[in-house]
Model the fold of this input.
Amino acid sequence: MRRGKLATEDVAQNIAKGMYHSDGRMKKCKNSEPSPRINEMLEIKSYINDAFENNDPNQEPFETKPEYYRAGKMLGRGAFGKVNLGMHKLTRKLIAIKSINKEYLSEEKQRSKIMHEVNLLLSLRHQSVVKLYETFETSRHIMLVMELCAGGDLLNFVRKRKKLDEMTGKIIFKQVIEGIAYVHSRKVLHRDIKLDNILLDGKGNVKIADFGVSK
Done:
């Protein structure tokens, strides 16, 4: 790690101890320079603290804002929107942000289909099923914050190698079966299992995705 740059976990601990000024400078270090990274984390943490410490029953519920995330390069495009690489500014965790244009959801049936998939993903938690962390809306988009699958889909993974060796095939197949078994145990049918809908994380672990036609 680059000299002088603290790990996110250390910064979070320092914030909890009140060791920073509001502009990101350390209180005990006179010559410290303001840090935009720490300032971002302080701002979001302050808003979250205010939301949870205020016991006013008439207060609006805590809502995620687009400003809590930083969007990066586009990873893919679908029928209703696109997927971008993103980062949560407080935890510095890399995620995928799926933005769905509301213009394409003019019919109630289309919006209902999207919300059906969202509700399904929020109810599923398994190491071989892609995770949906949270959702929020802007004036133009529905935003889905999801687990980053940096390894791409299984279709391209196989195409690049032309074929898989037996051990790699066994490992991937085992994870797919475990994921499907878990989904079935939750009384859900995926109904569209194919190589395109099986993603891989940065370590090559299977993540079953795209529950758009599930029941």
Observations:
- The chain has a mean pLDDT of 87.
